[in-house]
Structure formats: structure tokens, C-alpha cells
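thread from #wetlab-drylab

HS: before we spend reagent money on co-crystallization trials with heme C, can we at least see a predicted complex? here's what I'd submit
DV: go for it
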Amino acid sequence: MNSFEFNKIFAAVLVAGITAMFAGFVAENVIHAHALEKDAVEIEGVESSGGGVAVEKLAEPVLHLVASADVEKGKKLSKACASCHSFEKGGPVKTGPTLWGVVGSSKGGTSGFGYSSGMMEMGGKWSYADLNKFLWKPKKFVSGTKMNFIGLKKPEDRAAMIAWLRTLSDSPKALPGDSEIAAEQADLVLPEVLAEKVEDAVEMIEEIAEEAADVTPHAGDEVQEPIAATPTKKPVIEEAP
Ligand code: HEC
């Protein structure tokens, strides 16, 4: 072997070593295969769980169901609310405020009722979209709410309840329009789709980082002497007879 060839081989081994070191550096420092303490990117509707990414459940959209919802079913479901709420015009305040005319009215708007500070801080009016979120999980929508009610899990039940609440008015609010329906979809469906994509991407990066870590020599690892750089015996090439 002449020295030029030896240099070529040595350079190749050196480059391979540097590449492996660099891959290890990337795996350990640039790509964090271990759990992140904090989310690198915070997306509404995406909850971090033990460093990974989990899709937080959001309420299902229901605005598209309200126009054709079963109003009578909503009325029946209101039995679950009646221990705390009156529904007739001028009805009494009970454990909760009266709900006559609540759709489109100001949040925390019944005078003479002592609302929670969480409710008073909400501000704005009871839109269909907000009623859906509140009725899904009251405590999640209004932190520290006084409404001790688990919520209506089924989207059809919330749609029916909202459709019935709408009728409790001298001039019921117009049914949800197309743009309102689209806005609700964007609010509640897009984050979940996005979160799933992020979850897939994180999984992929973790796999790549694991693979990179596998091929990287770590400090303390037994490193094999590069064969090419330390020829001990001359290869014996048998001549064909
Ligand atoms: C255990 C009692 C209780 C039950 C059951 C209950 N609520 Fe309530 N509700 C409350 C209280 C208390 C508040 C005021 C919440 C606050 O101040 O944070 C409230 C507030 C509300 C509001 C907001 C009113 C406003 O003036 O801003 C709506 C809408 C509502 N409830 C709907 C319902 C519906 C619909 C049901 C049944 C599916 C229901 N609630 C069941 C106690 C209850």
C-alpha cells in the first residue's frame, strides 16, 4: 500500500468518525429524544403529557345540528337543570339564575344573582358556540363556576338543549348562520387535526433520534480500532493454479 492510498483510507475513517460524532451530537443536543420539560410549541387544544404530545378532547361542534334539533327533547333534558334553574319569564332565582332569554344575553347578566367571579370575568354574550362549550363541561369553560353540573356529554343533547333554550324568549335569536357554524368547526375541529399531525411528527423525530443514538459511540463505549489504519497482517491472496 503506498502512502497516498493509506492517506485516503485514513481520511475516510476520519470522516466516518466525525460524521458519527456529529450524528450523536445532533441526536443528543438538537433533537431532544428525552422528555421536554415544557412544550416547544403551544397549541390550543394540545396538552402535553409526560413530555409527549396528547390531543386534549374538545367539545364536539353542535351548531350545525341546532336548526334541526329536537326541541321537545331539549325540554325533557331540562329536568336535569330544573333543581337549580327556573326557565319561565320572570321566574325565580334558585341555586342558579333564571334562564329565560339566556341565549344571546350577557354572561352573568341576571341582576340579583351572585355569580362566581369566574363567570363575571368572562364578559360577552352567550353565543351558541359558548353555550355548547359551557354545557359540555361547565367547570372547564368557566373556571371556578358555581354551576355544580357535570355537563351534557352527547352532542345531540347539547344541540337539543340549546335549540330549546333559544325558544325561551319573546324574540328568539336567529339560528346559527353558516359563518358561525364554520367558525365553530375551525375552533373545535382544526386544533385536534393539527394536534394529531404534531403528534405524528414528534413520533417520527423521536424514532429518527433513537436510530441516530443507536449508531453513535458514547463516551466509555469500547471503540474498535479502525482496521484499515492498522494493518497487522498482509492479506494472503491465493493464486489460482
Ligand atoms: C346544581 C345546580 C345546577 C344545575 C343542575 C345546573 N345549573 Fe346552570 N347554573 C348554576 C349556577 C350556580 C350558575 C351560575 C354559575 C356561576 O356563577 O359561575 C349557573 C349558570 C348557568 C348558565 C349561565 C347563566 C347566566 O346568567 O350567565 C347557563 C346557561 C346554565 N347555567 C345552564 C344550565 C343548563 C342548561 C343546565 C341543565 C342541563 C344547568 N344549567 C344545570 C347551577 C346549576
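DV: Residues 80-81, 83-85, 95-97, 99, 102, 107-110, 115-116, 118-119, 135, 142, 145-149, 152, 161 surround heme C (CB under 6 Å).
HS: ok that's useful, forwarding to the group
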